[in-house]
Amino acid sequence: MNIQIIKILKMKQPNMRLGVHLLVSAIVFGIYSSGSTAALLCTGDPASITINVGNINVLKDVPINSPITPEIVGANGGFDCTKGTGRSGIGIKSYLSDTGKKNISSASLFASNVTGISMVIGVSGSIGLKWIGDHIGSIGGADWRLVSYSAVSENWSLQLQSRIQLYKTGDFSSGTLSGKIGAYMSSNGSYPTVWGPEIPIYITGTITKIACSLTNTSISVPLGDVSATQFTGITTTAGDKTFNLGLSCDKDANINVALAGSQNADTADTSVLALTNAGQSGTAKGVGVQLLYGSVPLKLNNNILLKTSAGGQETLPFSARYYQTQTTIGAGLANSSATLNITYQ
């Protein structure tokens, strides 16, 4: 008889209201150059965009230079422009500091306002998805990248879409992502000789450092064969088996646990779990399963504080046992599964 304990590492998120502010009023800029270069007059829309990344939980021991999010897509933006001199193009630029590091695709990593958290900044247009730093030359610099072009000396209207991905690039703490990270931008000339207007790109969201990491994420607890004669009536228990849950935690991390699973239908006690395939042929009858911390049964969906970590390796003692739910017990398989949601503050 086995109990499969599956633990999901889950960070309790701070009570924070996040918002996306999208300004949609149009703004017209005039960019003029001296000499023989003609004027480039463009209108950008929207006036700005904000990329809301939400709350990002990051394990404290994630390797340096590892991505901590998938690619996150920003809102579309674009420009309507009158003809200038030579080809015109649009793309994206960064307003963040270059860390001097690159990801495996040669995109530059730019430092966010949260220490130890950086990002790559890209844009998709008529020539596909490109990242700042993946090309240095006529269509890209250290902090900018073009992706869409017009024909020579014509009025044009082009659209593009931003993309970012966040990385852990050093020691970090929890924090709030904010500020201007870049801008959609327009240019006149195959190698930009005249820069047109910009559509600023802002970021909002939070980085939450998960203070603990689990040694194992799945534990099987064998209770062995238990005779029905070991039970003496409803609410009696048998087959106690202890097991430990290992954690590595930062100092002063408050470790909490909540049990998730299916309640046994034969009892109102919310600490008794149903058996796998309950009610089917070959499954034991009249018993359920309890999980305990110390000697106290864990109740379903009830979050409790286990301890405050002194820092380093922590070993949490749990146990599992069978619990009689009916007057008569029927022999059969008595497996169960549950989730221990471990949260940290």
From TrEMBL:
GO CC field? pilus
Gene Ontology biological process terms, A to Z: cell adhesion involved in single-species biofilm formation
Q: Which residues form the Fimbrial-type adhesion domain?
A: 201-345
Q: Does the keyword Isomerase apply?
A: no
Q: Which domain of life is it from?
A: Bacteria
What's in the keyword line of the UniProt record?
A: Fimbrium, Signal
Q: What is its main location?
A: other
Q: Where in the cell is it found?
A: Fimbrium
Q: Which family does it belong to?
A: Belongs to the fimbrial protein family.
Protein name (database record): Fimbrial protein
Species: Serratia proteamaculans (strain 568)
What lineage does UniProt assign to this protein's organism? Bacteria, Pseudomonadati, Pseudomonadota, Gammaproteobacteria, Enterobacterales
